Automatic annotation (TrEMBL):
Keywords: Membrane, Transmembrane, Transmembrane helix, Transport. It comes from the Bacteria. Its main location: membrane. It is found in: Membrane. It is a multi-pass membrane protein. Pfam families: SSF. GO terms for molecular function: urea transmembrane transporter activity. The chain crosses the membrane at residues 6-28, 40-63, 75-94, 120-145, 151-170, 182-203, 223-244, 265-287, 318-351, 372-397, 417-438, 450-470. This is Na+/solute symporter family protein. Belongs to the sodium:solute symporter (SSF) (TC 2.A.21) family. It comes from Desulfonema limicola. One of its GO terms (cellular component) is plasma membrane.
Amino acid sequence: MMSQTMTLTVLAVFGMTAFITGAVHRYASNLERFLAARRSVGMFTGALSVAATWIWAPALFLAAQKAYEQGIAGLMWFTLPNVGCLILFAFLAVRIRRFFPRGYTFPQYIASRFDIKTHAVYVFTFLSLQICSLGVQLIAGAAMLNAMSGVPSIFGVIILAVIFTSYSLVDGLASSIRTDLLQMFFIGAGMIILIPFAVFKGGGIQNLTAGLGGVSGEFSSPFNAHAAYSFGITVTIGLMSGPIGDQQHWQRAFAFQESMVFKGYILGAMIFAIVPLSMSLLGFTAAGNPQAAPLVYQGIISAQQTGPEVIRTLLPPWAMFVFMVMILSGLSSTGDSALCAGSSLAAIDIYRRYIKPDASDQEILKITRIAILVISITAAAISLIPGITILGLFLFYGTLRSSTLMPTILILYKKNIPAWGIFWGIVVAVIIGLPLYLTGEILGNIHLKVGANIGIILISFLLPVLSINLNKKGVLNEMSKLPE
């Protein structure tokens, strides 16, 4: 346990450093800068921002956990979809910049092609995701601070929300991208300092290689069927949907220099891959040497704590401070991105689209800052609901973004999709898939969870495809004109 005084000191220093980095440059006075960083982000800066945005805090835990539980197989199924989804998104980012070069949000592009209902369902799924994503960061961060030092959860939530919001209000997406560079530095430096030290103290390469099959020794093959079914299918669907159903990445796609967007996302995927591959070494060390993480091995604490438990057990007390800064960096990189992305949806897709279409850019800029405050307060309030869990929020917004995966790809590659096919594909997938997945999670039924995930993808793909074929044949052609 760390003292609360030291923990709050680390928080204060981290928050001040992030604020200075994000806000010292200038106070954004135009919408193009606040929402799209003047569309001038270069390849390397953008790649680091992409990687940082995709490193949400639990990812720093899960790589070690899956390496501990399911060895090489677990690591492969965690890493490949995480990297693959960014590579897939690189192709989609190129297309959105070609079709809609001056856009701010993906739902804004939907509004330019489809009707109000289709636009509304995209706005609902995308905005809900941003609020829930920020809530997850606040819950995870508050839980970490409470576990490490006893800081009450309500204080943890409020402090983290203030940190994320403070610099986001000043310069919007440009602030987020600048702080992403700082956060990647902290994460990278932390891994360089902690991981080789922990592996050495845990018995070196010998114990690490002994743990490649996981704690049970059964998962030394990356093609283990049990790992693929129990973890791989579900996580692959969820992760491949991640950037595509998330305005955080569409916003970055619009912020890149157009010629750099593809290269930036490919490089960002490669940079991101370093993180789970490095953190997994802690899990392999724990699997090969039970004394490296005794509380996890004895079942006293969850396997999700494998990484920090190895650090706590093997390294001096200062190492936990370094690890805490790494986690704060992961929280911040996603938290501030959620605020910027959510505010763009509120200002562009709600206020300008439905409330005041003739609003000036300066008025929209003001609304954007108000939206950041409202989203921050809403997410904080949600995260303080008694009994609310990371899992509950994650399952909700994970299902929402999975339902938009196939429709979004079809929209960018097909010109003749009727609006009703997209609308009902998403709605039916959510209505059927979410209850089934939640039921499977509650009952611990892996078959139900896998079936629900596959069902969401199939429904959201087949209904749009069906609508295209019916439209070509002239059957139910009028269904493409939903009443507004």
